[in-house]
Amino acid sequence: MARVSTRSSEKSAGSVDPKDGVKRAKLDMYRRLILEAAEQVFAEHGYDDAKMQDIAQGAGIALGTLYTVFPGKTEIYEAIQALRGREILESIFPALQGHDGVVDACKRGIDAYVRALVARPAFLRMHLRDGLSWTDPASLRSGEEVATWERGMELAVRLLQAGIEQGFLHAESRPELLLKMLVAAHQVQLQDWLDRGARTQDIDALIASMQHHFVRAFVRDQQGERPSPKREKRASRT
């Protein structure tokens, strides 16, 4: 009877070569360094003027090493969008849980969304630098960016629609339009925060201002309370 080699049986069982783990760890490290450096380069120079050499230099690696991880600038940009978009959405979902009504949920969502962006100032500058509208997906550069925009807009539209149906929010416009007006205001307010030096001590005041603008512009009752039946009836006639 033929003897089965212990070494061959271990390989057939799917044992992992320690060298493979080292390679993956090194690749992950390069990827992280590249994405962090690329955010800074895109924020400073814009996508069109960003150069792979500048990204490699910022990451502290050789240009050839950079190309072993990412084939080009487009792939780096899309990887940043996938990473940051996922992080920001994941920070918003928990904030919407356990709220005291739709208005409170909207204010919590604004808080989480703004804190996620200002915690990543280079990523924020990437989007504000070219002055493109955040309300128009046609201005977005990558499929991943569009997908993140659509997921975020869908979540917010559902929340605004619930607020309209429950009588908390103005119903003169579709929730999609209300959201675009809100996002446009946020874009201006965040740009102003960056222009004033992006100071961390101003973040709480920035969020409070954005929440106040939301209540003043979109909430039917400034106290965030459900309108009375008479007000509901009058509103339905207009």
Task: Kindly summarize this structure in a few lines.
By secondary structure, this protein is an all-alpha fold.
Q: How would you characterize this protein structure?
A:
Helix 2 (18-45) packs across helix 5. Mean pLDDT is 84; it is low at 8-12 and 224-238. With 238 residues, the protein is mainly alpha-helical. Helix content is 70%, strand content 0%. It is elongated. It has 2 domains: 19-71, Homeodomain-like (Arc Repressor Mutant, subunit A), CATH 1.10.10; 78-237, Tetracycline Repressor, domain 2 (Orthogonal Bundle).
For the largest beta-sheet, the strand count, sense and barrel status come to: none
Radius of gyration: 24 Å
Count of DSSP helices? 11
Helix content percent band: over 70%
Average pLDDT confidence is 84
CATH topology descriptor of the largest domain = Tetracycline Repressor, domain 2
Uncertain residue segments: 8-12, 224-238
The total tally of domains equals: 2
CATH architecture of the largest domain: Orthogonal Bundle
Count of extended strands: 0
String of helices and strands: HHHHHHHHHHH
